[in-house]
Amino acid sequence: MKKKSLSNFSFPSTRLRRNRMKEFSRKLISENILTTNDLIWPLFVTEGNKIKDKISSMPGIYRNSIDELIKEAEQAVKLKIPAIAIFPYIDSSLKDSKGSNAIDNNNLVCRSITAVKNEFPDLGIITDVALDPFTDHGHDGLVINDEVNNDETLKVLGQQALIQAQAGCDIIAPSDMMDGRVGHIRSILDEAGFINTQILSYAAKYASGFYGPFRDAIGSKLAGATKSTYQLDPANSDEAIREVELDILEGADMVMIKPGMPYLDIVHKVKNTFNIPTFVYQVSGEYAMIMAAIKKNWLDSDKVIMESLLSFKRAGANGILTYFAKDIAKKLK
Ligand code: PBG
After folding, report:
1. Long-range pairs, 186-195, Cβ under 8 A, ≥24
2. How confident is the model at residue 7 (pLDDT cuts 50, 70, 90)?
3. How many domains is the chain built from?
4. Which of 33, 96, 97, 321 has the most Cβ atoms closer than 10 angstroms to its Cβ?
């Protein structure tokens, strides 16, 4: 088809800067906006009392004992952040090859959920389903004959999801990338009567180097191993769409892309293809990178944090998991 001539509408009659000249006009033509409704705040929890352990690779982020977690949850409520995501730091004495503590209904995650729910019943709680905080080898699943075994892992993940739902979790978030886990978890939850417990699937989760600081935060060591037999190859995009499609068919209520900034194309594609609530995780390494440059005065914090979060909205995300949630919510007030 011959391209229609736009010559009648080109410079100098058309000047795109005209709309940008005054602030009121820039406001009118603004296409995307970040609000506190878009934020999910990931929080780390550890055993003990009055504990706020620093995480060296994540300045400003702490491992909180449950009493401190409650204080952070109170901040979330005050700042109108809709939901928090809880990640446990499990003492090494409780870790084993099977991740047994993941299915102990009195574990740190379950006690955290119940404690926060008791204080703030309307604050959304999201918890991870994966074995890596609980295994001594650091994999998200069971290792059998030197392989992360898919179908045996599903059985454990189903139990892990169930005890989290029983503890009061609103949204179960499988982050393990086993095949079939969303469908399996959905059926376990439904059979137990948890028909309204939502599933947010880490549907397109890449085998990324940007998770490094998170593994420090939860004390998970992979010891030279790779998660590439279950997490996606950073080179792939079609495969991400297939992952998301399967998770939706298995019953995911919401899907997530992770990491964030290096995968904005995937966020855009997923949202446009499936029109499903789509979330993105600005992961620990992204936070660490931005914070490191801010600390050196190489970047302006207010500008780059907002810009990074707005890029997710522009790509089509409905919400963002970000370690900046508390700070940005204060700014948005
Ligand atoms: C566990 C999990 C990881 C993250 C969230 N859940 C790490 C991993 O898969 O190795 C990363 C979050 C972050 O880096 O902020 N399966």
Report:
1. 186/250, 186/251, 188/158, 188/159, 188/161, 188/162, 189/161, 189/162, 189/165, 192/162, 192/165, 192/166, 194/162, 194/165, 194/166
2. low
3. 1
4. 321
Structural domain includes residue 300:
yes
Please indicate whether residue 247, judged by its CB atom, sits closer than 6 Å to ligand 1: no
Give the number of the atom of ligand 1 that is nearest the alpha carbon of residue 285: 14
| Cα separation values, 207 from 71, 173, 221, 235, 294, Å | 33, 17, 15, 10, 26
Count other C-beta atoms under 10 Å from residue 198's C-beta: 18
Q: Confidence class of residue 146 from pLDDT cuts 50, 70 and 90?
A: very high
Residue 9 located in a structural domain: no
Residue 124 class from Cβ within 10 Å (0-12 exposed, 13-18 middle, 19+ buried)? middle
Give 5's DSSP letter. P
Each residue of 62-116: pLDDT tens digit?
999 999 999 999 999 999 999 999 999 999 999 999 999 999 999 999 999 999 9
Query: Rounded distance, CA 258 to CA 219, Å?
Result: 20
- 205 among known catalytic residues: yes
132 Cβ below 6 A of ligand 1: yes
pTM for this model (two decimals): 0.95
Q: Are 279 and 321 a contacting pair, CB within 8 Å?
A: yes
Q: Of the residues 172, 283, 284, 286, which should be mutated to test ligand 1's pocket, given the most ligand atoms within 8 Å of the CB?
A: 283
Instruction: Give the rounded distance of the alpha carbon of 147 from its chain centre.
Output: 26
Of 216, 246, 175, the C-alpha closest to 44 is 216
Write down the residue that tokens 């709680």 correspond to. 125
| Residue carrying structure tokens 């991400």 | 240
Which domain does 99 fall in, by range? Answer: 34-332
How far apart are alpha carbons 261 and 267 in whole angstroms?
A: 10
Residue 313 lies in a domain: yes
Decide if 6 is inside a domain: no
CATH of the domain at 76: 3.20.20.70
Coil/strand/helix, residue 94: helix
